[in-house]
Design a protein that fits this description.
single chain; alpha+beta; Butyryl-Coa Dehydrogenase, subunit A, domain 1; Butyryl-CoA Dehydrogenase, subunit A, domain 2; Butyryl-CoA Dehydrogenase, subunit A, domain 3
């Protein structure tokens, strides 16, 4: 569906109003798509029609110009309607947003993509995970390869996993090893023959993200489709340098699901009147305690996410020092989301395990947050090493490194 909305800068109020209107539509469809494990194509038709594909496209490229904080607020609101749709759309928003403030792509590819987004609401995702590799955030070389085919042509072969939004993507960013070299190139590949989507996504939670496998059979590409290229480098274990857009937006999505769970519990507590009690269970201190715990977790974690996103936007010269805080925000948000949903289920009781409420879906959805990078088992040692370096005098650290 073509985008019919004029691509001009949007205020925060405009963005959030649009997100709330879309979330209301998504909420009506979420349970069915979750039950069927089907992809909500109509949600993405609505997102495109509303102009949301242009959310993080810079104003100078014709988009809405949302920074990290406004994008985060929007993804949280969308997740309150449907976590799967918000998580899938986050992959497009973060790919475009992070590239706007990073090193621009080769061959004018970024500006060309933005023109397609603002013109026809094209959607893109970076598809980097592989069966053997896992997430590239942990290091390692992809098995996907690009072999020369003529002077400026390539043939790409491989398999990618977790290709979220695959049923409606227009462009796939594919990292591949250039045959005969140690270099990895990122190709921007349009949907085309030879690029097969294998419907493998059948998950416990986030069942409607369309995160299928992507199989590339001699997919043709040219040098002009290489958006970046460089040698394979392992992550520096002494640095914490997450992709702020990906990390914070993912945290916001799971917190949005948790906020929806809290709202469901609040509604239930005010309407549920047991015969023996004769008044709503919301009047009980035990229920108020669970609600208070949800509020504490939600407000404190929101504050952390919002603060870091705001700092990232306002003080670009400080971005390198924000890495540890960004990791903390993601770990805090995904774990808090699980705790909030658990508290909501304690408020509602046994009914929370049935399809009478959406809580059983929220319960499953928030658990997926643990597995997005940086996962807890990576983040906590990183943060520990960071704290130890901060506490170690530079001269002593150099001496220790010399002995090693």
């Amino acid at each position: 569906m073509a985008n019919t909305t004029n691509q001009t800068e949007r205020t925060r109020a405009d963005i959030l109003q649009s997100a709330d209107e879309l979330a209301a539509k998504f909420r009506e469809r979420a349970a069915l798509h979750d039950r069927e494990g089907s992809f909500p194509v109509e949600n993405f038709d609505d997102l495109r029609a509303a102009g949301f594909a242009s959310l993080s496209v810079p104003v100078e490229c014709g988009g809405w110009g949302a920074g990290l904080l406004d994008s985060l607020l929007a993804m949280e609101r969308l997740a309150m309607g449907d976590g799967s749709t918000a998580l899938a759309m986050t992959m497009h928003v973060q790919t475009v947003g992070s590239s706007a403030v990073g090193e621009r792509w080769k061959n004018g590819a970024y500006e060309g993509l933005c023109a397609e987004i603002t013109g026809r609401a094209a959607l893109v995702n970076s598809c980097a995970s592989e069966p053997e590799l896992g997430s590239p955030s942990r290091g390692g070389k992809p098995s996907t390869s690009a072999t020369r085919d003529g002077t400026d042509g390539w043939r790409i072969n491989g398999r990618k996993t977790f290709a979220s939004m695959s049923p409606v993507l227009d462009y796939f960013i594919i990292p591949a090893v250039l045959d005969g070299t140690d270099e990895i190139a990122r190709f921007m590949i349009p949907r085309q023959p030879g690029l097969e989507i294998e419907e493998t996504w059948d998950s416990l939670g986030m069942r409607s993200t369309g995160s299928n496998d992507l199989i590339l059979h001699d997919v043709p590409a040219t040098d002009r489709q290489i958006i970046s290229q460089g040698p394979d480098r392992a992550p520096d274990p002494t640095k914490i340098a997450p992709n702020a857009w990906f990390t914070l937006l993912v945290g916001a999505v799971y917190l949005g699901v948790a906020a929806a769970a809290q709202q469901a519990a609040l509604d239930y507590a005010q309407k549920r009147i047991p015969t023996a009690l004769g008044k709503p269970i919301a009047t009980l201190e035990s229920i108020q305690r669970h609600i208070g715990q949800m509020e504490l977790l939600l407000l404190s974690t929101r504050g952390l996410l919002y603060y870091l996103a705001g700092q990232w936007d306002a003080e670009p010269e400080r971005r390198a020092e924000l890495g540890p805080g960004i990791v903390v925000a993601k770990v805090s948000a995904t774990n808090a989301a699980i705790q909030i949903v658990d508290e909501a289920m304690r408020v509602v009781g046994g009914a929370s395990m049935t399809h009478q409420t959406p809580l059983e879906r929220y319960y499953r959805d928030v658990r997926a947050g643990l597995f997005h990078p940086p996962a807890d088992d990576t983040a906590l040692p990183q943060l520990g090493r960071h704290a130890l370096r901060r506490a170690t005098p530079p001269a002593q650290e150099q001496a220790s490194n010399g002995k090693a």
